[in-house]
Design brief:
mainly alpha; about 65% helix; about 140 residues
Length: about 140
């Protein structure tokens, strides 16, 4: 019988955990910047309303903890929502990046897994919004 090749030595990786965590912040920060730049300094028409709605969806996908401030009895300003979302959601994205960085050996593997996780997260949110919209009529 052949014995399996088992090693308890620390696995060497080209991906640093801190670097992977910081790289994981790119997607939510780009989404937030894109969401905040919609409709600034212009008059409003129906296209601007649609763009604002899409921007709000992008913001919630990028910073998922902002749902906590959606209750009616909580009265908050836009700045509070932005600050709360950044402070509570960015650590989640950072943890995702560091976890993926600890599990892969190369940046290519990290990038593939990160893009997959981001796409799954985005699609799951869009499907959830579609289901809620269908139920609401």
């Amino acid at each position: 019988m052949a014995t399996p090749n088992v090693s308890f030595a620390r696995r060497l990786s080209n991906v640093g955990r801190t670097s992977a965590g910081l790289a994981a912040l790119v997607y939510p920060l780009v989404m937030v910047v894109m969401a905040l730049s919609v409709g600034s300094r212009r008059g409003g028409d129906i296209q601007d309303f649609a763009a604002s709605f899409v921007a709000a969806v992008m913001f919630v996908i990028a910073l998922p903890t902002t749902w906590l401030l959606s209750f009616d009895f909580i009265e908050v300003s836009r700045t509070t929502i932005l600050f709360f979302g950044l402070v509570t959601s960015l650590p989640l994205w950072y943890l995702l990046g560091t976890t993926l960085g600890a599990r892969v050996k190369t940046w290519g593997g990290w990038f593939r897994r990160y893009v997959t996780a981001a796409l799954i997260w985005t699609m799951a949110n869009l499907i959830l919004l579609a289901v809620v919209a269908a139920l609401a009529g």
